[in-house]
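Many introductory courses stop at the sequence. We go one step further.
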Amino acid sequence: PFQIEQWDSTNASASIWVKLDTILGNTSQYFTMLWGNSSAKTASNPTAVFDTVNAFQGVWHLGESGGTIQKDATPNHFDGTPVEMSGSNDVAGLVGRAQDFNGSSNCVNVLNARNSRLDVQTDSFYTVSAWVYARTLNKGLHVFLSKGSAQYGLMINKQDQWEFYGGLTGYGVDTTTTAQAAANVW
């Protein structure tokens, strides 16, 4: 299965997500892509690439125009509603299009996520990831992704370090600080 996120025949570029059953380390692997047949039916299927059977619960590429619904590629359809965003927020991302958030009022809310598959059990195993390009670092608190006020989230903290936080029932919030954040890099 594959998902065509972006296809630009004029500029000869595309962003395509492909699901491979196995990726082996330190080994050359190949898959075949065919294009150019204008009569072929498109088989782009994001819900097959980012299927919940493979533990994906929410995937947002943020490739839609800033003022429109940001689609969840999983079968859960946790589509996000942009807040104070427009087409002027659209930028080139690491893969395909992305959104430029102003650091204060711009965000994407996923309103149907309460008591959903995006909730995780305390002390369970899960993965949260985001591609972030910070233009400046200013010893502020910058949250890039969060579920609720303290269930879990990813941020650059006041020491300009990457920090992941997760709520622990009865214990408050547990944080894990990782590497120093850097400006102008993904």
